[in-house]
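Table S2 (continued). Query chain:
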Amino acid sequence: MQDLNFPKYHFSLKRELEKEYIFDSIRKKWVVLTPEEWVRQHVIAYLVQTERLPASLIAVERMIKYNKLVKRFDVLLYNTLGKPAMLIECKAPEVNLSKETLFQIATYNTVFKVPYLFITNGIMHQVYAWDESGKYLALDAFPTEILHH
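Corresponding output:
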């Protein structure tokens, strides 16, 4: 897999029946190593190892119901009070982050109503905050402090 715009992390990898797998420490299972999963695992490592957030505050690939559709979010980060604080959408490195990507995660956010959104393809990262006027504003840095409220 290609290098990403994250610190270097150690991952448990294995090959079985011509497929590569990576161990997901949050879901506690081996998952097929796709380019998107490579990005997702880097996001998880960033949250746990670099930002020092407890793994217990992270939910990965869970189903949500939006209108009559069933979708899966990539990563949901809770604050220390157990309230959803940030929704994270991971794309494969070759996928450009676009208005459609932001629209997708903003649509998921109608379920959670979190104050922060984070989208990444592993190369580019974009963080947004919901503001009082009803818009998402781009931030310059990852807002770790909000997770401790």
